[in-house]
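Q: What does the assembled structure look like for these inputs?
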Amino acid sequence: MAEPSAGISLPRLLRDLILNFALDVQEYFALLLRVFRTAVTRPRYVRDFVQQLDTIGVGSLFIVLLTGLFTGMVLALQSAVEMKEFGAVMYIGRLVGASAVRELGPVLTALMVTGRAGAGMAAAIGAMTVTEQVDALRSMGVDPVRKLVTPRFLAAVLMLPILTIITDLIAILGGMLIAVVKLDLTADLYMRSVYFTLADTGFIFRFIPIDVFQGMVKPIAFGGIMALTSCYHGLRTTGGTEGVGRSTTQAVVTTSILILATDYFLTQILIALLVE
Amino acid sequence: MSIDHSGPPDASAESGESTDSKLQAEVRTEIQRALAADARRDPRGVAKVALKDVWLAYGDNEVLRGISFDVSEGEVLCVLGGSGTGKSTILRLILRLIKPDRGEILISGRDICQAELEDVLELREQMGMVFQGSALFDSLSVFDNVAFPLVEHTNFDEERIRARVAEVLQFVDLDPDEVQDLLPAELSGGMKKRVGIARAIVHQPPLLLFDEPTSGLDPVTTKRIDELILKLRRELRVCAVVVTHDIKSAARISNQAALLRHGEFTFMGSPEEMFASDDKYVRAFLG
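A:
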């Protein structure tokens, strides 16, 4: 009968886990630094950047429209049930506007784009890695980070805020649809309600509502996290097609968790800086 | 590189072809000039590639144990050995896709292991690598694949790039008009290898690396690939390191052969010497 595996002890396993995690974090931030460095030095891959703008931005537009529309409609429907009890249905615009612009718009957009474009990035780069295409780039004197990661990172950082604005607008319109059709409010009353809630917290640079500003800052961070995490997992892919699937899953899960955690910390920071 | 244009072309085609050939010759000269400028930066160039006492281990597994060789212009070294003996690792070390634990890897006299990333990228421009699975970019057409190194490293206009790509595709026995718009997925295994070779030689690198160039190919295609490597050696005077376990191929194309076993070369010499060797492992490997 085989001896039980005497070499593996719990402390050693724990130490290895911590060490591997520390190494992963170090590599992740090293990749981020290289992205920053390659973003400001030549050569620049403008064509790849434009292609990624199209893939991330235009390619994600449809799911973002649907997400915004249904989120706004559900928010209005759900909150109407509670608000009716207090005779506050006319304030439904405040609730939909604040929720969409502050939280749901940025977070849901980032999660939906991660599911679509982030998974695509991890799969595409992962497939390139396991079929030696990334090594082929290196062998031709081309830096894979500059060619593959930086254009995706910059495109995601630019497109996420734009997609978030679209989600916010569509969510507000979705809420309005329910308010007008189901709750017998006028569109004017609903939109005034949205405006006042956004104006309540004040303005930054005199004309940008703080809520909208918050909602614009977050997607920049989310876009960067999505692209970097997806490319990071893609570049580390091993183990053939099965490995590509594994990397894609890891990329989506890790990005989603990082987005939710970052959202919390960013909200804390932004509230401390802008509201308090 | 000279191209054999067989068959009598008609007058208009002939005129077009001569313009094309003139352009192709111009492009070749420009690439050579650029490479010569690179070479001038390094006056120590003796051998094109030299490994000196290179060691590499993954954990407790010693993959390479004090490997040394040098390959000069016009020479082809075939590295033979069983599966998993670290043959392809040698190519990855030369490209510095991985770094050795110790030892020197000299590319035209410069130690690639000690170079900064920018210098490594520049040194890699002097190399062309043909990967085992061809490693063609899936999303790019054959033309874009072959043109890739020129687009990356030269300022050639589209006309010049087209001329050069057509020339190298012809060199590897592919009809540019037939194949250049195809995607890699639409090519056969042999065609992929040849496109891979075309991509590796398009910028006329003085050093070529081949990873199992004939694996998985039928004997006829294998012979064609071997002839291509010989043609490169003869006509372009490239220096090449070929990793293979195909003994017949190695005998055909190389003037040096090395047999890798347990991280060391158990044999190094000409293919003729290898076939005449009394060493037990060499005999067993040769079958």
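The CA atoms of residues 168 and 198 of chain B lie 6 Å apart.
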